[in-house]
Amino acid sequence: MMNKNQIYVIYGNTPKTMIKEILTKARIEEEIDKSALIGIKPNLVVAKPSTSGATTTPDLVAGVIEYLQSKGYQNIIILEGSWVGDRTFRAFSVCGYEQLSKLYNVPLVDLQRDKYTEYDAGGVRINVCNKAMEVDYLINMPVLKGHCQTSMTCALKNMKGCIPDSEKRKFHTMGLHKPIAYLNRVVKSNLIIVDGLMGDLTFEEGGTPVQMNRVFVGKDPVLIDAYAAELMGFNLNEIPYIQMAERIGVGSADVSKAEIIELNKDCDVRKITRSHKVERLSKYIEEKDACSACYGSLIHALERLDERGLLARLRGKICIGQGYKGQQGEGIGIGVCTKGFSKGIPGCPPKAKDIVEFIEKNI
Ligand code: SF4
User: Fold this and answer.
1) Fewer Cβ atoms within 10 A, N terminus or C terminus of the chain?
2) What is the dihedral of CA 98, 161, 200, 304, to 10 degrees?
3) Residue 267 has pLDDT above 80, yes or no
4) For the chain, what is the largest distance between any 2 Cα atoms, rounded to a whole number of angstroms?
């Protein structure tokens, strides 16, 4: 069975088989009662398909359902409440969840239409939708993506879909960070499955998707978010709700003590989705057969450097890709493939945070 300090990572672009492989290793069935009501909470913040970078890939959810049903679980629901600017029923339709529901006979629960109850989260009072509190085992399935107000969104913030619209508005007036941290004292994720296949670079509503080609799974939402922050090139102090959640006992933000278990290596040559922003950042890159996960890390790192006003100081292009294996070179190279470079950054793939820190020191 999986420990709280473990994170399983798998690379690729075949979500169904990838998640089944992780769940088989994690053996989640050993901790779920056969009669349990299992709630799957994707991120369907807006009615846009997952290729936009905004929402959870339906095939990933399909893989989870197939795994659970193969182990004899029949009491499964998918629950979500989109943001106040959209309607969940539209998102269920546009994002492919109506089809999932019919195919697997799994009901969809629109939390925007649910009743709610007020809870004391330890000094902060929060209204939470009733159905979210009824489930016995909650599978939190966020997307690894940026956010215009909180820098990034992943496991902790995905729980915001479990509160009524009136409470979502209140969260914004409270500055988001504190209520997000406290909400996770009330709505507890039993398992977190992060869709890191194609998340957005900067906005939760999509439009600038970056292929990161990975799924990762854990049991501690704070640890998952701390790890996600590193993948996107952030320092923890840039996302206050993660450390707040740690301080109030939701979990641990210490990635150095985590056991990261990679089940494979990425070997999928990049298929970067063109958007104005990604196009602009890719001008700083010289690429030869780069893997998607590696290229995605570099794009996130360049975005962080751009935010800090450092991109203009780069001299020469950054080299990345398997085509550089065995080659010597001057300048900055990304990952083990460029270890012959004078400034090669280790890792396969490296995290965006490591790329940012290296480049900050070397320009
Ligand atoms: S270091 Fe090379 S092999 Fe490893 S992920 Fe990057 S491009 Fe792929």
Assistant:
1) N
2) -170
3) no
4) 63
pLDDT at 277: 87
Residue 197, token pair as written in the block: 């296949």
pLDDT for the residue numbered 347: 95
Q: Among the atoms of ligand 1, which is closest to the Cα of residue 347?
A: 1
Whose CA is closest to 165, among 200, 226, 114, 119? 114
Per-residue pLDDT tens over the stretch 212-230: 999 999 999 999 999 999 9
Q: What are the structural domains, with CATH classification, of the chain?
A: 6-262 (3.40.50.11440), 276-362 (no CATH)
* Both structure tokens of 212: 């990161």
Give the length of the chain.
Answer: 363
Strand 116-120 vs strand 125-129: parallel, antiparallel, or unpaired?
A: antiparallel
Q: Which of 325, 336, 339, 358 for mutating ligand 1's site (highest number of atoms within 8 Å of CB)?
A: 336
Q: d(Cα 7, Cα 220) in Å, to the nearest integer?
A: 9
Q: What is the per-residue pLDDT across 308-345, written as a single tens digit (0 to 9) for each?
A: 999 989 988 999 999 999 999 889 999 999 999 999 99
Distance in angstroms (rounded) separating the CA atoms of residues 285 and 310: 15
The model's pTM: 0.94
Please tell me the distance from the alpha carbon of residue 168 to that of residue 141, in angstroms, as a whole number: 19
Before 42, cis peptide (omega within 30)?
no
* Whether residue 278 has its Cβ less than 6 Å from ligand 1: no
| 11-20 tens-digit pLDDT | 999 999 999 9
Structure tokens that stand for 331 in this block = 């300048």
Residue 255's SS3 state is: helix
- Counting from 1 in the atom list of ligand 1, the atom nearest the Cα of 290 is 7
Q: Nearest Cα to 40, choosing from 5, 83, 73?
A: 73
Q: How many CB atoms lie within 10 A of CB 169?
A: 10
336 lines ligand 1 (CB under 6 A): yes
Q: Using CB atoms within 10 Å of the CB of residue 250, give its burial: 0 to 12 exposed, 13 to 18 middle, 19+ buried.
A: buried
State the burial class of residue 207 (Cβ atoms within 10 Å of its Cβ: 0-12, 13-18, 19+). Answer: middle
Which amino acid would we find at residue 185?
A: R
